[in-house]
Recover the amino acids of this structure.
C-alpha cells in the first residue's frame, strides 16, 4: 500500500487490520512454527468462506504482513508465513489486547 505524506499512520495500520478475519489469520500464522497451508487455515476458521479467506490473505500479502509460496505440483500447494515485518506486529496487537482488557472489559463488570 503506497503511503502518501498526509496520511495518518494510525489510519494506515487500521486499514491494514480491517476485515473480520485478518487478526484471527494473523494469530494462527504467528503461533505456527512452520508454514501453513490454505486448507489448514480453512479448517481453523470454518465460518469463513473461500472467497473471503482468499481476499483477506491477498490483502495481508499486499501489505507485506504475510508471504505466499506456491508450489507447482500436480496438486497445487500454497503455504503462508508471516514476514519479518508481520512478526513485529505482535507487540502492537498485544498492547491493544491489554488496553482492551483494562478499558473495555472492565466496563462490562460494572
Amino acid at each position: 500500500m503506497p503511503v502518501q505524506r498526509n496520511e495518518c499512520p494510525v489510519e494506515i495500520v487500521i486499514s491494514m487490520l480491517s476485515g473480520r478475519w485478518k487478526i484471527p489469520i494473523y494469530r494462527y500464522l504467528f503461533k505456527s512454527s512452520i508454514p501453513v497451508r490454505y486448507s489448514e487455515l480453512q479448517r481453523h476458521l470454518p465460518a469463513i468462506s473461500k472467497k473471503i479467506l482468499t481476499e483477506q490473505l491477498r490483502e495481508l500479502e499486499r501489505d507485506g504482513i504475510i508471504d505466499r509460496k506456491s508450489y507447482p505440483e500436480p496438486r497445487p500447494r500454497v503455504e503462508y508465513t508471516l514476514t519479518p515485518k508481520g512478526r513485529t506486529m505482535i507487540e502492537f496487537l498485544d498492547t491493544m489486547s491489554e488496553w482492551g482488557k483494562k478499558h473495555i472489559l472492565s466496563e462490562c463488570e460494572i
